[in-house]
What does this fold into?
Amino acid sequence: MKLSQGNRLLFIGDSVTDVGRERPVAQGTLFNRLGRGYPHIVSGMVNALHPELGINVINTGVSGDTARRLAARWQTDVIDLHPDWLSVMIGINDVWRQFDSPCEPEQHVLLDEYESTLDELFTRTCPLLSGGLVIMAPFYIETNLQDRMRAEIARYQAACRRLAEKHHAIFVDTQAAFDRILQSRHSSFISWDRVHPNDVGHTALAMAFLRAMEFDFEA
It folds into this structure.
């Protein structure tokens, strides 16, 4: 496993990461401070199977965030918290606002801005990480590849792959994790709106993250 003794693992993102986490900074295992999503599940798995490591999981997800809004709070919600490992999942709202708010272009974060914003943040932050960077791609829980939002999300996923290669980061293909479930279940089995996962979806995200981190599920 890539995590080591005493590591601080910080998750940042939008509502999929937030999921009711404590403010201003959610960390630790007491009273479900991390919310009800995949950071909570990751913390539970890591600290149940490897309690000797003392991994401190931190959640600074904020519902509604785009890459632009993420950048505005990066100093306080990432840099100032001194993580060893940083996991970033952002992009759903960057795409979604283009479809649910088409008449409000000021809310849209198009692909070029999305990629350049994250590139700048990662360039600034990676040298500060003693562990490393994890890039979890945005997703859309939809099997129809011709669906306009699914097709647009794919372009942002490709940007995440490019950024992972450039910054020598670990890439987590969240779409593949959901597509596997969608081979036998309808999207409503995972999410009511194809964006916000239920407990099954968050477990899939947590497992995808842990596999990418070479977590030993048999420990």
User: Anything to note?
Assistant: DSSP finds nine helices and six strands in the chain.
